[in-house]
Specification:
Blueprint lengths: L2 H4 L11 E5 L4 H17 L2 E8 L3 H5 L4 H23 L7 E7 L2 H11 L4 E5 L6 H4 L2 H8 L4 E4 L1
Parallel strand pairs: 1-2, 1-4, 2-3, 4-5
Helix pairs in contact: 5-7
Length: 153
Amino acid sequence: MTDQQRHRFERGTDGPKVIVAGIDGSDSSMRAAAYAAGLARRQNAMLALVYVQPVLSAGAALGAPVAEATGDVAEGLVNEIRTATERLKDIWNVRWEFHTFRGDPYNGLVTAADELKADAVVVGASESAGHRFVGSVAVRLVKAGRWPVTVVP
């Protein structure tokens, strides 16, 4: 090994800097967030927790307060994450941010990963039977091939 090759490695900069974890309140998404938090802690990376607020135009057309309902879900998720963070702050210290995007889950996570300059994406396995017809978000993210994607069962 030459001196030039030996100096190419920079300690502390070889892992991901930003890890995006998609959450929607489901059990698998919360396990994905916990897994991503462990990765972020070990890599000293920023954990970006992303909730994609669905756009339900049919509900809005019928007069349902869709934006308010999805905003309440986002607020509930933030409170749950803050509570867990406070409970574990003396044991683990993880830098994290919470972001919300609007749209379908796949496009919302792609937008989030692009805007946040994600080095990795972590999502929970689909708990929906409908993914067999349109493909799960996880499979679509893997097929996009733009980031390493971890799917947590």
